[in-house]
# Entry
Amino acid sequence: MRIGFVCYPTFGGSGVVATELGKALAAKGHELHFITYSEPARMGSLKSNMFFHEVRVSNYPLFDFQPYELVLTSKMVEVAIKHRLDLLHVHYAIPHASAAVMARAILASKGHHLPIVTTLHGTDITLLGKDPAFEPVISYAINQSDAVTAVSESLKSDTLKLFGCQNQTIDFIPNFICPAQYKGTPDEELRRHIAPQGQPILTHISNFRPVKRLDDVLKIFIEVRKKIPAKLLLVGDGPERSRVEKAAEEMGYRDDVIFIGKIKNPIEPLRISDLFLLPSATESFGLAALEAMASGVPVVASNTGGLPEVIEHGVSGFLHDVGDIESMAQSAMSVLDNPSYLAQFKAQAIQHSERFNIANILPRYEAIYARLVPTEKQSPA
# Structure
């Protein structure tokens, strides 16, 4: 099957999931065409059945804000015709699904039929979906898609609540991990650099937005640090970084809090970590938590959104109410202070993550594709 994939090419969860899904489909023999404004961060080397099509927006003096959605629509039409696509799989309701609906209409006028699968990842629903300026477009894009998936039951429920979706069935298909990527030895040199005396390492990886509650990450760590000589490793960048850096210095923990910015492969810092902190205000799924568990790192997180679907309390980590710093710190110390207990949790985290093995998830997407594009209608390879 020839499939067009439209996603953000960044390090964020939706871009990572879309790229890894596309690569897995290509490995099974499908022909994949990534359509976005730059090569996806996790794409790797191009293969004979995997292509990248750049969406380039020209700068016209007429526009204060360049019309990316329109250029994206035109690129979808161009790629669909030139490469005889059987299907478009778009990640995010806007601008990707809305652009795809427009592209499908243009293609229909030219005699081409192109089904659309829309995968909802979270921010398009939980943040933009609550903005009246976007609601009509998101609702239309969802209801006009030929199939819609959501990465958690929580997100599916939120979508139905916010948009009704009377004419649309939403399939729940969770995010996934590719276990082979998490097998490897920790970088002991990196670990010694972060924790020269073998101190436990607590880690947080995110885009440093307010919803991630970086203040809580720091407060949890400080409570742990009062009793255990630990280190805090912060991976990523975003609007909250400079403020949290300043707060760590003002509180006297400058040498114990290490910022390493954005990196392409978050698995490296996870392999040297002992505990992962994710006290977010909300998470539609929590891919960072799943990646931590697959790396053998138990998670202390908020009991919100899709996180309870990812983390099993008392098995692969701990779940507490949003903002409950004391309980999160106590849970962290309970494992860090007991090496055998920590080893048990690390093993359980890996075992629990296997539930999200891509081998179990990929067939569910392929079943949707097959439903929309019967074999006799698929383009010949």
Notes: The mean pLDDT is 91.
